[in-house]
Design goal:
The complex is a heterodimer. Chain A is α/β, with parallel strands linked by helices. Chain A contains 12 helices and 11 strands. The longest helix of chain A has 26 residues. Chain B contains 7 helices and 8 strands, in the order ββαβαβααββββααα. In chain B, helix 1 runs parallel beside helix 2 and helix 3 crosses helix 7. Classes of the chains: A alpha/beta, B alpha/beta. The complex binds zinc ion (ZN).
Chain lengths: 366, 231
Amino acid sequence: MNATPLVLGIESSCDETGVGIVRGTELLANTVSSSMELHVRFGGVIPEIASRAHLDAFVPTLRAALAEAGVALADVDAIAVTSGPGLAGALMVGVSAAKALALATGKPLYAINHLVAHVGVGLLDPSIAAVTATGALPENLGALLVSGGHTEILRVHSIAEHVELLGATIDDAAGEAFDKVARLLGLAYPGGPAIDKLARQGNPKAVRFPRGLTMPKYMGTAEAPGPHRYDFSFSGLKTAVARCVEGYEAAGADVPVADVAASFQEAVLDVITAKAVLACREHAITTLLLGGGVAANSRLRELLAARCRSAGITLLVPAFSLCTDNGAMVAALGAQLVMRGVAPGGLAFAPDSSLPVSSISLPAAG
Amino acid sequence: MASAALVRLDIEELDIEEGDAGRVIVEAAFATDDTRSHAEVLAPGVRGLFADPLTEGPALDAIVVGTGPGPFTGLRTGIAMARTLAFVWGVPLYGLMSLEALAWDVLDDGGTHRARVAAGGFVVATDARRKELYWAHYAPDGTLLDGPHVGPAADITDLPVFGAGAGLYAEALAANGCTVPAGYAAAQPTARALARAAARRLAAGETLDDTTPLYLRESDAKVPGPRKRAL
Ligand SMILES: [Zn+2]
């Protein structure tokens, strides 16, 4: 078994075209081309525009990653590609290109779960050394993924074999809620950084916005969990913000934008961090890994760090370039699968826009 | 549909005027009518064209991919694959409008249709959904006169119309003075015909296109207007 396989990873599930190259757990290249600017005027990612951009970005991104890593395709041991979850049309471009790459080079191809890859990327980050001397992922690991496309709490029994979904958003992703509220408040896209910045000047207690799915009928108890104990909902919160803004406007008053931004942000992050820590406690999770683009939010980091500290949970936050969608995370998980001797997925699998987290990689079809 | 073909052009024997399909030898071809399964079938289909094992790049002179117009996802699946194969194997890469494949199928069809195509030429048309067609107008010698376009059948008048798009709107086309020749009411562009058309153009010293997809339609995205009230 190759202990340090050279793996090339491809990511195209949303608006980032990523190609990353790793050797075992060593990061050699992480090249990302984003189509974010094309979506600014729409205030959110437009799937068809993202798909068109992936097609044109793929070969240049691949070329740049190979040059950065200083490796030839012939040296690569395996290729890995995000096969879901994500935007169907966007996934298809990366999968088709990855299949061509595997076909043309004769290398094995792994069809990777994007969410699990957000966890696997932790192996590439030096912060992992603070937790485990071996460089492997720690025991009793959980993950909190927060981005524009997903919001989940995972329990990682084994990165290559068993990952369990504990909770997820039932409507909008957290990052999506930030984008929509930023638009309501007349702020720029993407909404996350804009709200984070403005919220620092506002009072997070100015408006008491609802905390979604926190009522007893949803939460239940540890012994008798309700139907949404670790789940999230942000669409009602977005409506509440709209009503609040309209209330000020109807009264002919200026909207206290910083206070509304701070109060909204607090409502989102309060629920996310409280439920993540609750899930950790009730599932004996002692290390929590944070992933996804919203990991850049300063208040999320602050609140999560404080709550993890008081619960005795070690928090791991990889470098921001590894938290956002990228090819290195796909390569990192691919390398783990190669090391465990997991069989590759062949050329006949189909991308799955709603791939469940329990499916870490797709098996070879038929 | 998804299809791929490996063709060899016998340059010595090539007679452009005659347009004889027999002089472009199809070594291997793959096609499926299942329009929903590009992702699953295209890569194994392409793989199947080549000898096993494929340790080094095959000795290809060119890779040609259909650039549409056609369903966006299928179009990208093919172009992403062709661009990547060409990059890895270091092979020249070209694009060709997919409707041209259908046009050459018509012209190469044992002379039956060539004889019936009058001086005004003919149209090839595929289904563009939303009650529209992708279509182009060709001269009797295969020269593109007009197109590609996307639009309703009503835009096409007084010409023979070949292809699956013609079959779908036969009545509307007939009302405009068009004919829908038998045997072509369900025809789709194939890689076999595309490769043949491309090989013929390369042999004649003509240029081919790049692989920019012919979407013909913008994405449906709308720039959001003023905020709607929540109440
Ligand atoms: Zn992601």
